[in-house]
Design goal:
The protein is an alpha+beta fold. The chain is built from five helices and 22 strands. It is rod-shaped. It starts with a helix and ends with a strand.
Length: about 425
């Protein structure tokens, strides 16, 4: 078969691998007698008989190199595969139009989706941060006298009034010291009165009288000191509130000036936040705020009470104090809370649900339903909150955006709205 083709198109200069010379080697059935010899590597003579096979228009030429039956079969198979693979196309394939470019050969069936119309509503630039609840007043209890606890009148968690007795220390020695001081004071007073009479009659000098007077004054001070020590043996609450920590036990000795507990006033609560320097000037005293507790699943009103005017160099923030309103007394000191403060409100912003947003290489956008097709539109966003975002450019009020089923869409894909 290959030899027949070679004979039919002799003289083709593009095939130089095989030259057929006259010699009959395959018997009858061929138009001439040829013998095969190898052509020179660079043979440009076009007068020699040359064999080649021409296939599909876009395919290369395949020389007829061999006359062995098995090799001829392999050459035929190779010829068939190239002829079916190359084709005669015009070289115009489908060209993509980007991630959301128009998809050629889109499915005939419409994709089911859900849509919402864009509308206007309030949105704001908010300062969002976290903090913990703190009491406005929290005082440590300090023992003013040293001694052993002989009576304990409160427990941890008890509510007490200001100056309420919390505990008593052993005070027998203090009581004796008081009596001794009173006796000394009485004697010093009598000596003073006697010296005063003698001075009037000029039996003593003025210096002796002044020494007696000074001794009496010192004795009075010792009485006051003994009374104070005896009073300090009774431990009292410094403020009204709740005993939130108590380290006293019956029979335990406590030294003077030792901290043994804490009282917290739960009637007023506050929290401390740290405001970035770019937002400090937008924050004002008495500015309303909102705090929420995840554990209580509740929100509480708050207000900015005071702002530290100094920016911390290390963190670049300023400290601000917020007062928290909790009339039902649900919050507890130490609770973790989220804080939200409106810095700049936009009351009539064009809003888009965040679930409708689709990002193309970081650029936000939405698919809009235009007729029966989905059309991609890139958006410029403004303020953002948890579930909504402000649309600055790319959409108008009343546009129907796809909120369910948009993840697999392409620009121009046919869609249909699912029934509610």
């Amino acid at each position: 078969m290959l030899r027949d083709a070679a004979v039919k198109i002799p003289g083709d200069p593009r095939v130089k691998g095989v030259v057929l010379a006259p010699k009959q080697i395959n018997g009858p059935g061929h138009p001439g007698s040829y013998r095969r010899r190898t052509a020179p590597r660079f043979n440009d003579r076009h007068t020699q008989p040359v064999a080649a096979l021409r296939f599909a228009p876009n395919c290369a030429l395949i020389p007829a190199y061999h006359s062995h039956p098995l090799k001829r079969l392999l050459a035929c198979l190779l010829t068939f595969s190239l002829a079916t693979g190359c084709g005669s196309g015009d070289g115009t394939g489908d060209k993509g139009g980007g991630k959301w470019g128009k998809k050629s050969g889109a499915p005939a069936e419409a994709v089911p989706v859900k849509t919402e119309k864009l509308g206007r509503g309030p949105i704001a630039l908010r300062l969002l941060t976290t903090s913990t609840v703190d009491p406005v007043r929290r005082v440590e209890m300090v023992s003013k006298a040293a001694g052993i606890v002989k009576e304990l009148l409160v427990v941890e968690g008890a509510t007490v009034a200001a100056e309420a007795i919390l505990a008593r220390l052993e005070d027998e020695s203090l009581a004796l010291a008081k009596v001794k001081a009173e006796v000394s004071e009485k004697k010093a007073k009598d000596d003073y009165e006697h010296m005063k009479t003698l001075l009037a009659e000029k039996y003593v000098s003025v210096d002796e009288f002044r020494k007696a007077e000074q001794a009496w004054q010192t004795a009075k001070l010792e009485v006051d000191s003994a009374n104070l020590a005896l009073a300090n043996a009774t431990v009292k609450a410094p403020i009204a509130g709740t005993v939130t920590r108590l380290d006293l036990q019956l029979g335990k000795h406590i030294p003077a000036n030792a901290v043994f507990g804490e009282i917290t006033d739960l009637s007023e609560l506050e929290c401390v936040i740290y405001v970035p320097e770019k937002d400090v000037l937008r924050l004002k005293e008495e500015q309303p705020a909102e705090v929420s507790s995840e554990s209580l699943e509740a929100q509480f009103r708050a207000a900015v009470k005071r702002i530290n005017p100094v920016i911390d160099r290390a963190s670049g923030t300023a400290k601000a104090f917020l007062s928290i309103s909790d009339p039902e007394k649900r919050l507890r000191p130490g609770m973790f809370i989220d804080v939200s403060i409106v810095l700049e409100p936009h009351d009539k912003a064009l809003l888009v649900p965040k679930r409708a947003l689709v990002f193309d290489e970081g650029r936000p956008g939405v698919f809009m339903k235009k007729g029966e097709e989905a059309k991609w539109s890139e958006l410029e966003l403004g303020f953002q909150e948890k579930d909504i975002a402000e649309v600055v450019k790319g959409a108008t009020e009343g546009d129907e955006v796809i909120v369910v089923g948009q993840s697999g869409l392409k620009d121009g894909t046919k869609v249909k709205v699912m029934a509610e």
